Amino acid sequence: MFFIEPIRNFYGRFERPISSLSLILGFVFDAFTLRRVDTLFENVWILGHLIILGIFIILIHIKENEAGSEGNPKKAHFWYVNILQFFFGGTLSAYLVFYFRSSDIFTTWPFIALLVIAFIANESLKRHYIRLSFQISLFFLSIYSFMIFLVPIIFRQISVWMFLLAGLFSLIFIFVFIKILIYLIKDKYFQSRRLIILLISGIFTLINALYFTNLIPPIPLSLKDAGAYHSIQKNAEGNYDVTYENQGWRGYFKLYPDFKETLGKPIYAFSAIFSPKDINLNIVHEWQHYNEASRKWTTESLINLSVNGGRGGGFRTYSMRTNLTTGKWRVNIKTEQNQTIGILRFNVILTDTDLVLTRMIK
C-alpha cells in the first residue's frame, strides 16, 4: 500500500529516538496497568512476551545472512531485530514494576540494578542483537525473573524450595529452547556454545547469590502501606482507625520523619502486606534502634504476625512498643526466610506536651 513505504522510511530514519520513546512509554504503561502479580492477565501478558521473544530470536538468525539487512527497513531482518528489542523492553519494564513494588530499594538495590542494567542494555547495545549469546543470556534472565514469582503463585507457597524450583524450571525451559535452536541453526549455535553456557551459568549463579544474601525482593509479596501511629483501633466495619501527627509535605522528604513520643504511651507499627490468594504466611516486625556510639543497629524486639493472602490492598496488621529510646528507629518487615518486604523508619523525640493528632481510616 502507498502509505507503508513512507512510514517504513520514516522509522528507519528516526529509529533510535522512536525506539527510546517507545521504551519509556512502555514502562509508564506497565506502571499504570500492571496491578497484581497473581492475576491471570498479568502473567499471560508476560508469557506472551516470552513466546514472542523466543520466536524472533530464531527468526533473526535464520534471516541474518540477508544482504544489506542491517539498518535497512526494507529487509525483514531489520524489523525482526526491532520487534525483539521492543518485546525485551516490555518484558523487562514489567519486571521492574513488579520487583520495585515488592522491595525496599535500599535493601534489594543490587537485583533492581541488574534489571535496570538489562533494561538500558536492551536500548543501548542494539548491535549485539545479531549475537546469539547476548540474546539467549537476556532471554534466560527474563525467564528466570518470571519463574521466581510465578512458581510460588502456582504452588501457593513461598519458601526456599519454591525459589530452587523456579531455577530448575528456568534451566529446563532454556535447555528446551536451545535444543530447538540446535535443530534450526546448528552451526551458528555451536560457534557461540561456550559463551552461551558461560553466560547462563553466570546469571544463574548471580541470581542465587543475590537470593541467599537476601538481596532479591520477596516477590510475589509486596508492602502496600506502612506507618508509625499513636493509636490503632479496629472499627465496626473491620477497618483500622489510626491517629498520627500531621507533619505536612516536609515529612515526605525525610528518610527518618520525627515521631513525638509521650512517655508511657505506645508507638504502633502498621503494615499492609499483599500476598497472592491462598498464600498465607507469617511475617516478622523487627524493631531496631540505631546506636550512635557504635554506629550499629541493635535489634530490640522480634514480633511474629500472620498474613492472609488475597486482599488487593494488603493484609493489615500491626505491632507495638512502649518507652522507646530517643533516636533513629526502623521496623524491618520481613518474611520468615529473612527477606525484607519493607522498612518503616522514624526518629523518636520525647515530648511532654499534648499533641494535635489527625485521624485516618486504614
Automatic annotation (TrEMBL):
Organism: Candidatus Nomurabacteria bacterium GW2011_GWC2_35_8
Record's keyword terms, sorted: Membrane, Transmembrane, Transmembrane helix
Keyword rRNA-binding applies: no
InterPro entries, alphabetized: DUF2914
UniProt KW Iron keyword: no
Source species taxonomy: Bacteria, Candidatus Nomuraibacteriota
Domain called DUF2914: residue spans: 282-348
Name this polypeptide is given: DUF2914 domain-containing protein
TM stretches of this protein: 21-37, 43-62, 78-100, 106-125, 132-155, 161-183, 195-213
Pfam family, one: DUF2914
